[in-house]
Amino acid sequence: MRKGIYYREKLSADKLFRCYEIAPSRIKQYLNAEIQFVISNLHDTDLVLELGCGYARVMKAVSRFVSWIVGNDISRESLELAGSYMESCRNYAMFLMDACQLSFRSCVFDVVFCIQNGISAFGVDKKRLINESVRVTKDNGIILFSSYSPKIWAARLE
Questions:
Q1: Residue 123 — left, alpha, or beta (φ > 0 → left; ψ -120 to 50 → alpha)?
Q2: In degrees, to the nearest 5, what angle opens at C-alpha 10 toward C-alphas 8 and 14?
């Protein structure tokens, strides 16, 4: 099963929410550090895109630090939960679309990010994913990707 299909059909919405809810404290610390790293690279005037936003756990945290945040995901179920999760926020939009075929114009976003191992977890052509990220990012914009450190795998599997 392709990873994209796995996330869309097997680990979307409530199941994904539950994974983060029951994560060991070391993993929660790791995930929070990723969010803080993203936030440290933002400005309050930025237009930001999160690739693979899931149920919007990261979008909600980031939304307080930017002008506008956009999320995309391939799971309709995840985006439906994200709408509820983001209910108190007013500076966001979400779209059902493939991160390798974004429907946005070129050079739109100040920051594009994809954290929590998305570059591997999406199960797509990595070069295509990065090229599409570059295409939608403004000149002198920032693109942030992360992948799990080998040092975290034991705690992650816990």
A1: left
A2: 90
* Domain assignment of residue 140, given as a range: 3-157
Q: Helix, strand or coil for residue 71? A: strand
pTM: 0.87
CATH number assigned to the domain comprising residue 22: 3.40.50.150
Helices (H) and strands (E) in the chain, counts: 8, 5
Token pair recorded at residue 130: 């990065």
Each of the 158 residues of the chain gets a pLDDT tens digit; together they read 444 554 545 556 677 777 778 888 888 888 899 999 999 999 999 999 999 998 999 999 999 999 999 999 998 988 999 999 999 999 999 999 999 999 999 999 999 999 977 777 788 899 999 999 999 999 999 999 988 777 776 776 66
Residues 118 and 73: their CA atoms lie apart, in Å, by 11
Domain total of the chain: 1
